[in-house]
Amino acid sequence: MPTSSKISPIFRADESPQVEILEVLRDAKVLARRYYDLTGKPLGITGEVAEYEAATKLNLRLHPPRQAGYDATEVRQEGLVKIQIKGRCITNPQKITGRMGSIDLRQVFDTVLLVLLDSDFNAFAMYEASRDKVEAALRVPGSRARNERGALAIKQFMAISIVRWIRD
Hints:
Layout: E1 11-12, H1 16-39, H2 46-58, E2 61-62, E3 72-76, E4 79-89, E5 111-117, E6 123-130, H3 131-138, H4 144-149, H5 154-160, E7 162-166
Parallel strand pairs: 4-5
Antiparallel strand pairs: 1-2, 2-3, 3-4, 5-6, 6-7
Helix pairs in contact: 1-2
């Protein structure tokens, strides 16, 4: 698909092409909630919504879809940080269970950011862990899901991470 010359492949939450994308994602959140209410199944946009929530709340620079390894970057004191964003919809925030999506250690990233969404697809918490901590957790012997598929339990990830953002 041809790309318009005025659309940057890298954008921030406050840049113009991003504004329209964020509007579409805001509308998609409403449709996803409606679809879930009707079917009891998620619509399959959790990852995109998680990126939207992270970009708007943390002012991250999003990268194009299918960027290998990371979804966003942020300039920090130590330099440019490549962030892989994972999202999970939790219908009862008081009872957090389940696994995160796969983390491929062959890809380039510096941190993993887990965005927890409520049943209305609004972020209620974001946790971040360094690549070193994620690698160590994935290499602990015992779980096939963890060791072979790179899928950590949400609670496991929360234990090795810091709270990056939490809803008041």
